[in-house]
Known about the structure:
Blueprint: H1 2-15, E1 18-23, H2 36-56, E2 61-68, H3 74-80, H4 83-91, H5 101-112, E3 123-126
Parallel strand pairs: 1-2, 2-3
Amino acid sequence: MILSMKHEVRVMxxxxxxxxxxxxxxxxxEGAAGASLYVGSKHAVEGITKSVALELAKSGIRVNxxxxxxxxxxxxxxxxxxxxxxxxxxxxxxxxxxxxxEELADAIVFxxxxxxxxxxxxxxxxxxxxxxx
Length: 133
């Protein structure tokens, strides 16, 4: 993420505008037993995203993040291991289902769009209400 942003910023500073969207996780602002390294890396993504957003705001570059909750991906299947563990995650989602990758893509496209032109330094939870509970 840091190397990617380094090169993105160089191009965006030259054009005087841009939008960077980093991917975190709801674990970027909560803890999770058995996932300390993953959780720590996602906390770092969120902190760096907010700090770089402040550093670049006057240059016309917006920096935000998307924090997916439980999403129906191969990574989640590997993480949960067995169907019962995946079902337990779903039980904690107020909307009662896993997110879809397309729903995350929609959030990313929104943050990159002109409709989000006054949003920077924000982490958007796309989690079916998981972090609201």
